[in-house]
Amino acid sequence: MSAVQSMNMPINGASAPPNRLRILTIATIVLTGLGFVLAMFVAKTDVDQGDVQRIFYYHMPSFFGGLFAFIATVIGGVNYLRTRQTRWDTLALAGVEVGLALSLINLITGAVWARPIWNTWWTWDARLTSAAIMCLTYAAYLMLRGGIENPEKRRMFASVYGIVAITTAILTLVIIRIVPNTIHPAVIGPSPQNAEGTFEFSQNVAMALGPNIIIWGFLIPLTLIWWRIRLQNRVDAVAMLKAEALSD
Amino acid sequence: MTTPLWRTVFAIIRKDLRAELRSRELVSTMVLFALLSVLVFSFALELDRTARQEVVNGILWVTLVFASILGLNRSLATERELGGMDAMMISPIPRMAIYLGKMVGNFLFVLVVGLVLLPIMTILYNVVLVQIPLLITLMLGVFGLASIGTLLAAMTAQTRSRETLLPIAMLPVIIPLLLVVIAASSGIMKEENYWGWVGVLAMVDIIYAMLGLLLFEYVIED
Predict the structure, then answer these.
(1) How far A135 CA lies from chain B's nearest CA (Å)?
(2) Cα A198 vs. chain centroid, distance in angstroms?
(3) Closest chain A residue by Cα to residue B218
(4) pLDDT tens sequence across B81-129
(5) A47: Cβ contacts below 8 Å, ≥ 6 apart
(6) Distances (CA, A) of A181 to A165, A196, B185
(7) Are A172 and A134 spatial neighbours (Cβ–Cβ below 8 Å)?
(8) At CA A36, angle to CA A58 and CA A44, rounded to 5?
(9) How far is CA A119 from the centre of its chain?
(10) What would the DSSP string read from start to end of A227-244?
(11) Fewer beta carbons below 10 Å: N end or C end of chain A?
């Protein structure tokens, strides 16, 4: 993971961002704009659903972005338990925060889409529920971190919980295959019988969806995690300086 | 020289059972809580004949989950407060044995609660719950609760907010288990084909137990 290598920087944390990060950030911003144009203007309007279908180009990619970030948390957690190096825990924390933000985007865009299509903001459908549960699990991760004062113990428990929590993300991914009576459409493979708001997968859709999956599912979380790691390094550096100043 | 794994596990289970037989603290609290919860549900939901059929499994499992949180909190907190955990940590025993011992102990205690609830709910709700397939799902479900619960309770017992944090950490994580166990038991009640769900349930159990076995040693480290 390139995001992790970048953390080998001086502990005072005042260094300027490395060029790789600058390039990545600029590329992400430009591509996000491009993806917006593809989703809003280039892709043709859906015959049944109208313009509201365009939200899908953000809805699914942001879920994948959340998944990407939560997988980063698992990688960080496993490696922290193995090596006990703080930087892996920092990666895990960054993954949770970024993943939570993207999952919330996923939930909110889903609700906005469901209002006209399902005629309700929210329904206790299996997949909606499990996506909400996933968000709550990672909120619980942050609460758990907040509840432990000893920093080593905090990192250790957070790593363990971050690994356990991925089960809820996996559940959200597979739930429409195992619970048959859902109204949430499946995009890959056949939709369940009761799915409402399915649409055909034309070349047109793929052209707007593909880039946005790469942007929102990969580039945006990667960039945000990288910046979040840098931020955390500074927070840690400040805490260390404070401790030094107080001990003198 | 370390004591063999299984002898250690059995020693820990024996210790927990003996302590429980003498104090009757854990199981009696859980059973009483479970009975109250079942009564509260029946008042709160104002169930009629058909509604009972539909929700009885939900009530059973929500009750079991909360009762197990109650028990898990006590089981791990007592171990910390009375120094049992420290004693086990300095003994020349594999760390995995501590997990297995505590987990099986918790499994047995929650299972007792479940076994008490099944006949009582059969009488109170007039729905036949005492049948072999349901007992199997009960065992598998409680096993899952105990295996992930023991891991999480060992963590939360060491935090500042203690008892309050376990439900927050545990409830979202056990949703997959809850989903599968409810699907399996309502399949049994409706006499549909349920063995697929029981299989998925066993798989969830294996995942939880693996996570517990692999991660427990990090959680109790000082």
Answers:
(1) 9
(2) 24
(3) A156
(4) 888 888 888 888 888 899 999 999 999 999 999 999 999 998 888 888 8
(5) none
(6) 25, 11, 17
(7) yes
(8) 85
(9) 27
(10) HHHHHHHHHHHHHHHHHH
(11) C
DSSP strand E in A45-129: where?
Answer: none
- Taking alpha carbons only, the member of B157, B176, B139, B143 closest to residue B216 is B157
Minimum-distance CB partner of A171 among B155, B169, B176? B176
Q: Does any CB of chain A come closer than 8 Å to the CB of residue B213?
A: no
Nearest of B99, B16, B215 to residue A166 by alpha carbon: B215
**Contact yes or no for A92/A80 (Cβ under 8 A):** yes
The residue to which tokens 């953390």 are assigned:
A7
**Tokens 């993943």 belong to residue:** A99
Residue burial A44-56, b: 16+ Cβ < 10 Å; e: rest: eebeebeebbbbb
Tokens of residue B31, six digits: 């059973």
Structure-token match 């009885």, residue found: B56
- pLDDT tens figures, A45-87: 877 788 888 888 999 999 999 999 999 999 999 999 999 999 9
- Using H for helix, E for strand and C for coil, what is the string for B12-32? HHHHHHHHHHHHCCHHHHHHH
- Three-state secondary-structure class, residue A46: strand
Task: Locate the chain B residue with the closest alpha carbon to A142.
Answer: B169
